[in-house]
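Lab meeting tomorrow. Please check the following:
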Amino acid sequence: MRVAEAVGRTLARLGVRQAFGVVGSGNFDVTNALIDEGARYVGARHEGGAATMADAYARLSGEVAALTVHQGCGLTNAMTGITEAAKSRTPLLVLAAEATAATSNFAIDQAAMARAVGAQAMRVSSADTAVDDAIRAFSIARDDRRTVLVNLPLEVQGSECAAPVGRAP
């Protein structure tokens, strides 16, 4: 199983039942994994709208919601909604593809952007830690009522990793 699929499946098994976003090449696999594991996905015309919908859903339902966006401009388009969620301590996971090559037109310091608005930034840094990273991000969003940016580097997403076993704690 690839990292993007393991992360999406793990989050759905933990309780992410609703995701919002705009799908691009960088977040296609993690979004499909959420859906395959039973999460409902609502596509938006713009990432700003998707972020606002995810924030509203999480606040009204009391559940951890997910926002899934493309690297770079997909995340920057969603920042106003992410800022509101972070300032309101909304339990929200922002699943963002990440371009780490300095020569990429999509390369920006996504973690710094998240921290600047009060969100917590994390990165799935390897296939070996992917499932544990997803569990940690979900736990922070749920238990600490935080908006958590989960950066999914493009070069890590396609790596092979162990499939999540059963229902994650």
Observations:
- Strands lie at 18-21, 40-43, 65-69, 92-98, 120-123, 147-153.
- DSSP finds seven helices and six strands in the chain.
